[in-house]
Amino acid sequence: MASYQILAFAALFLILLPVAVNGDLDDLSPALSPFYDRLCDDVDCGKGTCKADISYPLNYICECDAGWKRTQDDSDDDDDHKFLPCVIPNCTLDYSCQPAPPPVPQREVPRNSSLFDPCYWAYCGEGTCNKTATYKYVCECRSGFSNLLNRTYFPCYSQCTLGSDCSRLGITVESQEVTPDGGVGKGEVPLMIKYSFV
């Protein structure tokens, strides 16, 4: 009886060994398809699309829409950070209009921090990150800042930070206007045309 168990284990080992050595896991993809479909339901890719596949780290990547990039973008398209959400607009961001942030306090890195914690990788701008689920987080903005596109997983920016070219990405941008008394007022550049039917 024990010899049959050893023989079955050896046969299974010899069958799976070449698959593991070659990294040829495509044969397993159809069997795992229901898992992959559900995986992307739990992932927010921002302005991108989730693509699940066993060959990627964390088993998925975010493919960014035109005009958007990841927080760890180093101009290397072959990097291993493709699981990060596409939340940084590829437009002019001018931080000189904001007050200087306070210096980062010196503190010890928590021993329980995990690379699998989405807040480890998230960029919240002028806000703090709070994990809400395995792959999800929210950016809670400081006073005077708001989430980009009013989505809680986008970074927090001040309106003055966003350049006028950001409007092409669907971002509402304030414009500077001269008022009749010589001061400077703020207005919104309309991004959507409202139709009125008479």
UniProtKB/TrEMBL annotation:
Q: Where is the signal peptide?
A: 1-23
> Which UniProt keywords are listed?
Signal
Specify the protein name. EGF-like domain-containing protein
> What is the originating organism of this protein?
Gossypium schwendimanii (Cotton)
Mind giving the lineage of the organism this protein is from? Eukaryota, Viridiplantae, Streptophyta, Embryophyta, Tracheophyta
